[in-house]
Amino acid sequence: MAFIDGTVVNVALPALQSSLNATAVDLQWVIEAYSLLLSAFLLVGGSLGDHYGRRRIFLIGIALFACASAACGFAADIRQLIAARALQGLGAALLIPGSLAIISSSSIFRSRFSSFSSRFGTSQKIRTKKTPELIG
């Protein structure tokens, strides 16, 4: 959800420009406000999850992301949309590390991933050792 939202807004840019009377700079900020806050607070979101609990921070991130998405939908002008997109980025920065940590800590994922990673690691070792010999 959070990864898709970073790029799906590009489809709506022409409609946003005409309906909100936005300039090209405004449209750039619509895209970058999300990316900027997501990248700035991604590590902070992971750290907060470690300190206060993954599930709690994940749920706070989902709530913030959902409220900011609604604010994007109800934005009356371009400034409100940019601010809502920034809040979306902050919510995504809280929910992404939590979602990945919750998935990786589940027992089903752990058992499947361990067998995959051991096979993948073995193939990487073979490929690393044999590639120079194959190249010449």
Which descriptors would you attach to this protein?
single chain; 136 residues; mainly alpha; 93% helix
Q: What can you see in these coordinates?
A:
It is a single chain. The protein is an all-alpha fold and 136 residues long. It folds into 2 domains: 2-105, no CATH class; 106-136. It contains 5 helices and no strands. The longest helix has 29 residues, at 24-52. The model has no long low-confidence stretch (mean pLDDT 83).
Give the gist of this structure.
The chain is an all-alpha fold and 136 residues long.
Any chance you could write out the topology, listing elements then pairs?
Layout: H1 2-20, H2 24-52, H3 54-74, H4 78-105, H5 107-135
Helix pairs in contact: 1-2, 1-4, 2-3, 2-4, 3-4
How many structural domains?
2
Tally of contiguous helical segments: 5
Structural class: mainly alpha
Q: Secondary-structure element sequence?
A: HHHHH
Main beta-sheet strand count, sense and barrel state: none
Give the overall shape, derived from the CA principal axes: elongated
Strand content: under 5%
Spans of at least 5 consecutive residues whose pLDDT stays below 50 are: none
Radius of gyration: 20 Å
Assign a percent range to the helix content.
over 70%
Question: Using DSSP, what is the number of strands?
Answer: 0
Question: How far apart lie the N and C ends?
Answer: 46 Å
**Averaged pLDDT, please?**
83
